[in-house]
Amino acid sequence: MAKLSTEELLESFKEMTLIELSEFVKQFEETFNVTAAAPVAVAGAAPAAGGGDAAAAAEEQSEFDVVLEAAGDKKIQVIKEVRSLTSLGLKEAKDLVDGAPKPILEKVDKDAAEKAKEALEGAGATVTLK
Fold first, then answer.
1. What is the mean pLDDT of residues 24-52?
2. Is the pLDDT of residue 46 over 80?
3. How do residues 68-80 score in pLDDT, each as one tens digit?
4. What is the mean pLDDT of residues 52-69?
5. Adjacency order of strands within the sheet including 64-70
6. C-alpha closest to that of 97 among 111, 116, 80, 110
7. Mean pLDDT, to the nearest integer, of 74-99?
8. Is the preceding peptide bond at 39 cis, omega within 30 degrees of 0?
9. N or C: which end of the chain has fewer CB within 10 A?
10. DSSP 8-class letter at 122
């Protein structure tokens, strides 16, 4: 098997959908018994575990996850909104909506999360921010 250069690997990843890339990362983690967690997340969690006030931590939250709880009656409209908010194709967006509850956007700022929530709720979906 020929060894791929870093540039060739990056080009391959660029051609993958987010779901395909996510599945690759999971399989990579299992194969090599590692995690691809960002070191910043670990460092940020340590001070909170050190006795920080939970209410203060909730007030300081700057990143939000937009979670689709249910598609509602207008599933096609919700799928269209999911596609406009993400770079997913039609099949991936439909699978995501059918598999609700699922996160649509992760670690976005409050304004982007609120806009996404309004757009999805306008299409008839039930959405929560975490």
1. 63
2. no
3. 888 888 888 888 8
4. 68
5. 102-108, 64-70, 126-129
6. 80
7. 86
8. no
9. N
10. H
Question: 127's torsion region: left (phi>0), alpha (psi -120 to 50) or beta?
Answer: beta
Rounded Cα distance, 60 and 68, in Å: 23
DSSP conformation class of 127: E
Question: Is the pLDDT assigned to residue 86 strictly greater than 80?
Answer: yes
Tell me, yes or no, if the pTM score tops 0.85: no
Write the DSSP assignment of 73-120 as a string of letters.
Answer: S-HHHHHHHHHHHS---HHHHHHHHHT-SEEEEEEE-HHHHHHHHHHH
